[in-house]
Amino acid sequence: MSQDADPIHDVPDGLPRLIEVMRRLRDPDAGCPWDIEQDFASIAPYTIEEAYEVADAIERESWDELEGELGDLLLQVVYHAQMAKEDGRFDFDSIARRIAAKMIDRHPHVFGTESRDKTPEQQTRDWETAKAAEREKAGRTGLLDDIALGLPALLRAVKLQKRAARVGFDWPDATHVLDKIAEECTELTAARDSLDQAHLTEEMGDLLFVMANLARHLGIDPEAALRGANAKFTRRFAHIEAELAKTGRTPADSDLAEMDALWDAAKALEKRP
């Protein structure tokens, strides 16, 4: 069938066509078998993955790639909206209406009568006040109740700490956090010597949680910092592979001493002006 004869191309371009594409993919009689069998739980990991790929494209300033990644992320929203529509829960239009209403309500200095003469910090405080009121209205009275369980653990740790810090439950400065890190390292070593895997896992979690807290006190996004470290490791290990390949070898044919030397060489190359 030619493009001109395909009814999908009669649908207006942009969002209406994307929504119709998803409707047809999920059509129980003529859709895609893989798409038809998916549900919210099976699609959720893809949604998280696509959000991270958007962040990755931004970090690399790959703007053409970002356009495609944003499309992939938008598809995830459309996917969830279509499944919800099939269940009679909500649809894409109701999602859009709800978020638009929230943005209008949360920005009375833009859409209402409040003065726009406020700092970004004041707006952040006002935003949190509005969220607290919404939590209370929904019956979630605990300060941490609405911090999603499904967030990546490192990101959720920072959110938990930020929220608790707003009511004064926080160390006064990074020095105290560093002291706590030393304490947790000691406890982790003791747990390692005890050979109790459950205890070791618990202490490792405590150390990671405090490391996230240190990043917050230093004004560092720990997710971004770890992504940078991952990229650096990948880059330097690729140098090791490339150097070994010059002699027809792979890392499996080398040893730690040689690979350490090649790692140091890659590190030195990165420091050159």
Salient structural properties:
273 residues; mainly alpha; Helix Hairpins; 70% helix; disordered N terminus
Give an overview in words:
- With 273 residues, the chain is mainly alpha-helical.
- Among the domains are: 7-106, MazG-like (Helix Hairpins), CATH 1.10.287; 224-271, no CATH class.
- The protein is built from twelve helices and no strands.
- It has helices at residues 15-25, 33-36, 40-59, 63-86, 92-106, 108-111, 120-137, 153-165, 174-194, 197-217, 222-245, 256-271.
- Helix 1 packs across helix 4, helix 3 packs antiparallel against helix 4 (63-86) and helix 9 packs antiparallel against helix 10 (197-217).
- It is globular, with a radius of gyration of 25 Å.
- Mean pLDDT is 90; it is low at 1-5.
Class per helix and strand makeup: mainly alpha
Q: What characterizes the major β-sheet?
A: none
Radius of gyration: 25 Å
Task: Give the beta-strand count.
Answer: 0
At the fourth level of CATH, the homologous superfamily of the domain at 7-106 is MazG-like
3D shape: globular
N-to-C span? 58 Å
Order of helices and strands: HHHHHHHHHHHH
